[in-house]
Specification:
The chain is of the alpha/beta class. The protein is 36% helix and 24% strand. An eight-stranded mixed sheet has the order 8-7-6-9-10-12-11-13, with helices on both faces. It has a three-stranded antiparallel sheet with strand order 1-3-2. Strands 18-14-19 form a three-stranded antiparallel sheet.
């Protein structure tokens, strides 16, 4: 597949020379051009600055002449380097011939793409390819003059990419689908545990770059298909895992392919979620990042519940909310509009606010949406707000959440009371109250792993959780508590299952069977 012609974007390396990609990979690894190697060379402050698209600290840290310093200047800082020097440790002739490098200046070569080392979850050394100056951040944040006009630009690894990769369920599956693959990071992760990976994108340049990312990372090739949303997927195809970091920005128009969906409001995200149900295999997961509108007079949770397709459990977590002015400013800066003509910037800003006003949008939410295909008669839809820090990766926690749903769905209150439970490890109890008070005002159970949840419980709930070690049934524990506090055991058995269900659902208690 050839690259897309674009007046201001570099021609891309050939995807028809896997031998060159393999030789280049070997040379990069030999020079320690890896995530760990970069951190050691640059130091934490310069390494973090590079992730913010700030290059000055990295330039200062690479003033020497080692192979690693030269490679950082070449592939990350987009600086020309002497042909003779780089020839000592790279297959320069083959790289020029296949388009990874181009001759420039006097006896120098320059990179045609940004190559960023990326550490896989199990210590793999991967490389994410993106357009020059767009390894992280928005197109407008690349520092390239006029870059925001390049609608086909392909970005590299950003916070959204790593967030989605972290929350994705990583169980072995026959088939995975990465919708809107971009630079290919989700496809690369999926290739480690899926027998077959399909990656789609509306932008053919992104598909080309995904092929380069997979090849240079030593991963199997994916089935690459051009098209929007589920258009490239055949009617008879289903997948065990669907992931997407879509162009979810709610904007007036579609200026930038990598972020603007081109549909009105949050329709693109809604269409993506609603269309996933029939493409999922039984028990399969679909996981997305998304934006959604908070509309005047409408409950945002009800809005999201209406998106969930029939036959799917869902867990939707709102991580952040911005008012419409904050949201508009964020994405205007992303496009670099704040650095241009002030009158033009204000006109763009006005257009965004006009659009929100017309739709009665008062704020925009951001978060995660996970679907799981189920045969249950009554699927469970959980929509919650959790803006607090979590522990990534969360894939195992997501899988466990749906396992707990299955358990609770299969156990009525009588079965719950007959069951035995254990308090999950690393849960602590905090008592909150005035100093010197005989009893606490309330008791909080707090997790230190996964979602890092905290929940208030009454004295019965705290006592129950503290005794749960898997040896006694829930009913017997409640009978003992009733005797201690002088309460009717029948009444206590009647009112406590709801609290037990909540503690199980949120991962504080786990079945001991």
């Amino acid at each position: 597949m050839g690259g897309v012609s674009n007046a201001t974007l570099s021609p891309l390396p050939s995807v028809d020379r896997p031998d060159v990609a393999a030789r280049l990979r070997e040379a990069l690894l030999a020079a320690s051009f890896t995530a760990d190697g970069l951190l050691e060379l640059l130091g934490a402050p310069a390494y973090a600055a590079l992730a913010r698209s700030e290059t000055v600290p990295a330039m200062r840290a690479t003033r020497g002449d080692t192979p690693l310093e030269t490679l950082v200047r070449l592939f990350l800082l987009q600086q020309p380097v002497p042909h003779a020097r780089v020839e000592e440790f790279l297959p320069v002739h083959a790289c020029v011939e296949s388009g990874w490098l181009v001759p420039t200046g006097e006896d120098e070569v320059a990179a045609t793409v940004d190559v960023r080392p990326y550490g896989g979850p199990d210590g793999e050394d991967w490389f994410i390819i993106s357009d020059l100056g767009c390894a992280v951040g928005g197109a407008g944040g690349s520092g390239s003059e006029g870059r925001q006009a390049d609608t086909a630009v392909v970005l590299g690894v950003g916070g959204a990419s790593t967030t989605l990769a972290g929350i994705t369920v990583r169980t072995p599956v026959p088939a995975a689908l990465d919708l809107g693959t971009g630079s290919g990071i989700q496809a690369l992760h999926a290739a480690q545990h899926a027998t077959r990976v399909t990656a789609t994108d509306l932008n053919p340049r992104a598909l080309h770059i995904t092929a380069l990312t997979l090849a240079l990372s030593g991963a199997p090739a994916a089935d690459l298909r051009e098209g929007s949303l589920f258009e490239p997927v055949r009617d008879d195809e289903t997948y065990d895992l669907i992931v997407s970091n879509p162009p979810f920005v709610i904007s007036p128009g579609a200026r930038l392919t990598y972020r603007d969906g081109g549909m009105g409001g949050d329709d693109l995200c809604r269409s993506l979620v609603q269309g996933a149900g029939e493409r999922l295999s039984e028990g399969g997961f679909a996981q997305f990042l998304a934006n959604w509108q908070h509309v005047e007079g409408e409950n945002w949770q009800d809005r999201l519940r209406s998106w969930v397709p029939r036959g799917c459990d869902a867990w939707i977590v709102q991580r952040e909310v911005q008012d419409v002015t904050q949201y508009a400013e964020l994405w205007l800066r992303d496009a670099g509009d704040h650095r241009g003509d002030q009158a033009e910037y204000q006109a763009h800003y006005d257009t965004w606010l006009d659009e929100f006003e017309a739709r009665k949008v008062k704020a925009v939410g951001f978060g995660w949406i996970t679907l799981r295909r189920t045969t249950a008669a009554e699927p469970v839809i959980t929509v919650e707000e959790w803006p607090h820090p979590v522990e990534q990766p969360l894939g195992d926690a997501v899988l466990a959440h749906f396992g707990r749903l299955d358990y609770l769905r299969a156990h009525d209150d009588a079965a719950l009371l007959a069951g035995r439970f254990r308090l999950v490890t690393e849960v602590v109890q905090e008592q909150v109250g005035l100093p010197g008070a005989e009893d606490p005002e309330h008791v909080v159970l707090r997790q230190h792993r996964g979602m890092r949840r905290a929940t208030k419980v009454d004295t019965v709930g705290a006592g129950f959780a503290g005794v749960c070690d898997g040896s006694l049934s829930a009913g017997r524990i409640l009978d003992a508590i009733a005797q201690l506090v002088g309460e009717d055991p029948v009444l206590l058995r009647d009112r406590t299952p709801a609290q037990i269900r909540l503690l199980v659902e949120q991962g504080f208690l786990e079945p001991a069977e």
